[in-house]
């Protein structure tokens, strides 16, 4: 194996934000534990922990490649909603020591799968509060007042803050 150096630098660092992979109209990977690999002049590559990837849509293929810096790569094809992305996912299961952190993680070819950074607060509302009647209300509390999926509210509804107009006012009849 070759060792990264000034002629071929490779760095691996934790991502500062949440990352997702999107295929066939579905998020197939979502993590706040991504690693970013930067290698020489290549575009950065996002490596997802396997447990944060929807592996049920992946099929292992016979394809194998070798990188003299990272080791042997294995590949997966994605099948979802009748759409294929052949060999669109790769992994270095036994990554070479200098990049050992990426071992067992998955990366996606970005010409087949959209990989993008996400604002964690936008997708993880537990970090967001709303101010109601002078006090903060956790978003989880607000969600509990919505439909539970069977037509019932998960909690009693809040008192309305507006009045329903009467028929004489041109309201509901």
Name some characteristics of this structure:
173 residues; 3-stranded antiparallel beta sheet; mainly beta; elongated
Topology at a glance:
Elements: E1 10-14, E2 18-23, E3 26-31, E4 35-39, E5 45-47, E6 58-67, E7 71-80, E8 83-91, E9 107-108, E10 114-118, H1 120-123, E11 129-132, E12 135-138, H2 139-143
Antiparallel strand pairs: 1-4, 2-3, 2-10, 4-5, 6-7, 7-8, 8-9, 11-12
Distance between the termini: 79 Å
Number of helices: 2
Give the overall silhouette.
Answer: elongated
Biggest pleated-sheet summary: 4 strands, antiparallel
Q: From the alpha-carbon coordinates, what is the Rg to the nearest angstrom?
A: 24 Å
**Overall number of strands:** 12
Percent of residues in helices comes to under 10%
Q: Helix/strand-derived class? A: mainly beta
Strand content: 35-45%
- Trace the largest sheet across and list its strands: 6-7-8-9
Low-confidence stretches: none
């Amino acid at each position: 194996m070759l060792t990264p150096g000034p002629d071929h630098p490779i760095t691996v660092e934790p991502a500062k934000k949440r990352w997702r992979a999107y295929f066939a109209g579905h998020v197939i990977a979502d993590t706040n534990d991504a690693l970013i690999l930067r290698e020489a002049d290549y575009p950065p590559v996002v490596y997802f922990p396997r447990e944060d990837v929807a592996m049920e849509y992946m099929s292992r293929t016979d394809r194998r490649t070798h990188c003299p810096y990272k080791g042997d790569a294995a590949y997966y094809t994605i099948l979802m909603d009748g759409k294929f992305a052949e060999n669109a996912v790769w992994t270095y299961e036994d990554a070479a020591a200098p990049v050992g952190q990426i071992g067992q993680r998955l990366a996606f070819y970005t010409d087949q799968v959209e990989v993008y950074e996400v604002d964690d607060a936008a997708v993880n509302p537990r970090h967001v509060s709303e101010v109601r009647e002078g006090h903060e209300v956790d978003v989880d509390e607000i969600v509990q007042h919505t439909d539970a999926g069977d037509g019932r509210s998960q909690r009693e509804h809040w008192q309305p803050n507006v009045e329903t107009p009467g028929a004489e006012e041109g309201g509901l009849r």
